[in-house]
User: Which sequence fits this backbone?
């Protein structure tokens, strides 16, 4: 029998305690609308809430706009079917907001404000509270969207229960959720440097370019948009694979609308355009 170390055992017990705290938080909220992007965090919240509160009291809602990759929308629908979630897809129009398109350091504030404007009436009609899958680790990053959500009355149950990203993945794995190791997938606008206008055309170009790399088997990928140039980020261990597939990548990324195809030798870094 494999021996479990004291450190590992303590970690398991700590996550289990946090899971109980999350369930208690959800029971107190009673009825919720989950902002459901299909990522590890929001999927975990939706799954635990579904198990804790039941289908009738949990409504998972996915915001659909040019900022959401079609692949992510499809996965949200698939998860809802697999887990029997009460799920809806609703359209948001953050691109109608000039302050969002300008793409300054508060872009995410305007995106989440749009999201809350759409989710709040749904929650009000169900006498529910909007919850987001924000975890403790997110609090240390530049996330103005969290401020917009809080101002509009959203709740972060993972933060209340003390969940880190690692905790979410550990608990998700223990519960058998296939999202436990899903790569982070921020909105497509996060690929556009601050000061560069966000447009449907730019977001579409980024999405098509990233699809090329995913079709070649790269799970964690970002294509950062610099006008005619695409800067590719993958996990460091995947850098040799990019070089090996360079001909197909160049052809595909150019086909998406870029003239120059470059590889970032530092590899993937989440939120590296926040600085």
Assistant:
């Amino acid at each position: 029998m494999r021996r479990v170390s004291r450190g590992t055992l303590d970690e398991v017990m700590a996550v289990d305690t946090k899971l109980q705290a999350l369930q208690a938080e959800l029971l107190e909220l009673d009825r919720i609308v989950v902002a459901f992007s299909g990522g590890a965090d929001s999927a975990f919240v939706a799954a635990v809430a579904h198990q804790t509160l039941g289908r009738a009291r949990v409504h998972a809602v996915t915001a659909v706009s040019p900022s959401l990759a079609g692949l992510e929308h499809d996965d949200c629908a698939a998860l809802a079917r697999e887990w029997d979630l009460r799920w809806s897809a609703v359209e948001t129009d953050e691109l109608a907001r000039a302050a969002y398109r300008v793409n300054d350091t508060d872009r995410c504030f305007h995106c989440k404000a749009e999201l809350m404007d759409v989710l709040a009436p749904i929650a009000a009609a169900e006498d529910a509270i909007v919850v987001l899958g924000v975890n403790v680790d997110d609090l240390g990053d530049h996330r103005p969207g969290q401020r917009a959500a809080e101002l509009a009355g959203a709740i972060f149950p993972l933060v209340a229960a003390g969940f880190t990203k690692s905790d979410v993945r550990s608990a998700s794995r223990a519960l058998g959720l296939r999202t436990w190791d899903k790569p982070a997938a921020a909105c497509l606008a996060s690929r556009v440097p601050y000061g560069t206008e966000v447009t449907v055309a730019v977001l579409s170009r980024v999405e098509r370019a990233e699809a090329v790399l995913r079709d070649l088997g790269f799970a964690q990928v970002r294509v950062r948009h610099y006008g005619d140039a695409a800067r590719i980020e993958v996990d460091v261990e995947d850098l040799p694979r990019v070089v090996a597939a360079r001909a197909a990548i160049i052809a595909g990324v150019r086909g998406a609308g870029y003239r120059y195809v470059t590889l970032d030798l530092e590899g993937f870094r989440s939120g590296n355009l926040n600085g």
In short: Residues 1-7 have pLDDT under 50 and may be disordered. The CA atoms of residues 70 and 207 lie 8 Å apart. The two ends are 48 Å apart (CA to CA). The chain is about 50% helix and 15% strand.
